[in-house]
Amino acid sequence: MSSEVKANKISPATGTAFTFGDSGDTFTVPSGATIANSGTATGFGVSNSSCAVHLGADVTLTRNVRTKVAFNVEDYDPEGWFDSTTNYRFQPDEDGVYFIDACLLQGNGAGADNVAMYIYKNGAEVYSNQVYQTGGTIAPMHSSGIVSLNGSSDYIEIFTMATSGSGTLTLDANGWNATNTTECRMSAMRLI
After folding, report:
1. d(CA 163, CA 130)
2. Which DSSP category does 62 fall into?
3. Rounded (5°) CA angle 133-134-140
């Protein structure tokens, strides 16, 4: 049976809910048609569900203390999911699987240093990376991973720690040649 219904508005008879079709039905939106949404859409995925942030200035580290990296400059955060002023964490509003990527540049120490970075989910380490550097050298570190996040409660933070060695050790926001302002950075992207 084939039929066509033309109307300017469809409302539920009871004023509470409207069901569009049945399980297994397929609805085709023809080429040239537009679906415009002014309300809340759920179950359709999200757009712009990513962020990119970086450290705005060098930070001095205390040895043998895990320190949260306070990424305070937002390069891209259309959803407002990264807190760059208080908690310095990524906390999405959408459930999903996210790719997390972080890079840190540490240097200016003396002697041999072990330096590490950690990706935390809800206050617990889920990924890490460690490098060994000789005195006075720059140690770039990179870590990434895929995590499932509940949009109502889960969050991601980046920590770092230096052990052994001596002298002042810093996170170098501007890089070894002071020309790149994104040496210490983090990004997150929703995959599904």
Report:
1. 11
2. P
3. 30
Contact residues for 102 (Cβ-Cβ < 8 A; gap 6+): 69, 117, 119, 142, 143, 144, 158, 185, 186, 187
> What does the alpha-carbon distance between residue 122 and residue 91 come to, in Å, rounded to a whole number?
10
For the chain, the helix, strand and coil percentages under 3-state DSSP, each to the nearest 5: 0, 40, 60
Which pLDDT tens digit goes with each residue over 33-67?
Answer: 777 776 666 655 555 588 999 998 888 888 888 99
pTM exceeding 0.85: no
Confidence of residue 127 (pLDDT cuts 50, 70, 90): very high
User: Which residues, other chains included, contact 49 with Cβ-Cβ below 8 Å and sequence gap of 6+?
Assistant: 79, 81, 92, 94, 96, 189, 190
Contact in structure between 48 and 78 (CB atoms under 8 Å): yes
Give the Cα separation of 143 and 119 in Å (integer). 8
